[in-house]
Amino acid sequence: MSHSVNPGPFADLLFAGLPDFEPGHVWLVGAGPGDRGLMTLHAVNALRQADVIVYDALIDEDSLAFAKPDVETEFAGKRGGRPSPKQNDITLRLIELAKQGKRVLRLKGGDPFIFGRGGEEALALVAADVPFRVVPGITAGIGGLCYAGIPATHRDINQSVTFLTGHDQTGSMPTALDWDAIAKGSQVIVMYMAMKHLESITEKLLKAGRPEDQGAAIVCNATTARQQVLISTLGKIAQEARESDLQPPALVVIGDVVKLHDGLDWLGVHQAGKKLNPDPLG
Question: What Gene3D superfamilies does the entry give (predicted)?
Answer without folding.
Answer: Cobalt-precorrin-4 Transmethylase, Domain 1, Methyltransferase, Cobalt-precorrin-4 Transmethylase, Domain 2
